[in-house]
Amino acid sequence: MGESTKTATEAPVLLAIEGLKTWFRVGGETIRAVDGVSLQVSAGKTVALVGESGCGKSVTALSVARLVPEPPGVIAGGSIRVAGQDVLAMSREALRELRGSQVAYVFQDPGQSLNPVLRVGTQLEECRRSHRQQADRSAVELLRCVGLPDPERVLTAYPHELSGGMKQRVMLAMALACSPQLLIADEPTTALDVTVQAQILSLLQDLQAQFHMGVLLITHNLGLVAEYADYVYVMYAGQIVESGPTASVIRAPAHPYTQGLIGAVPVLQREGGERPTLNGIPGMVPNPAQWPEGCRFADRCDYVTDRCRQGQVPQHVSDEGANVGRAVACHHPRHRVGATGAEVAP
Q1: Angle formed by the axes of helices 194-211 and 164-176, to 10°?
Q2: pLDDT (tens digit, 9 = 90+) per residue, 86-116?
Q3: 3-state DSSP call for residue 243?
Q4: Which of 1, 14, 249, 291 is the most buried (most CB within 10 A)?
């Protein structure tokens, strides 16, 4: 989906990715981890990028600030623009300025992200010092902002003295140190228990509203997406297979893969009711060094036909009625999302 012209009442586009290809060259093979991805994130909005492990979500996220190691990684095609700036044309110095001051990251395991031999205050101060001109809040203020009680004590603590939830709040404080426009949260609650997950996501929502950030939420959990995201992109085998406003996609998923992800969400058993079944998607994501021809989901799809395995998969889009903003790449979308006259399987 290309970068659109915004009216005065619409939120500006902070992140615009077009046709991104991030590949790895390892042992004579080319691994096409991200293979033609396009997406947008606007100010004040939460956009979710959803899919199984191995689909290319994290590589897409790292590509935004060119954090993919080169070599073996290489951005082989496409464009990345942050607040209108061409990231792929940036010098090393410009990239250093971009990272932290305009784009910040929170990763899934705060225990791995924090230095175990440095106190929290030292690590937080280092973030502020690297962009001194943007760091207008003190370390104590930042920790208080993310809901940590007794921030003065936390500043003197080592990471191992904090709980998982406290460490993730510290990571959020570090990400906010220079007031970034865009926050990329890559599975930010995976290493936390369910209660703390809800607290962190609620905090993230409050911080987004306070600082009017755009948020790109990377996850495999459609329950979180339904609760927190305004817009969702469903990624499979290095490509976007479906996108649209979250409520519309969850209510009427058009791609069989999206349907499979929704069907795999656990349902609680009601008292006296029949025990719910957990419907997984058979098979695995194919090898990114040997993506199949045609639809990459074909081998796992219940609706596959011969034409699914040949040629380019058609893209159906709609900007009308209940399906406004919807797009799906499929020969047999389960719900009509556009006025293209595409065949819809029964």
Answers
A1: 20
A2: 999 999 999 988 998 899 999 888 888 899 9
A3: strand
A4: 249
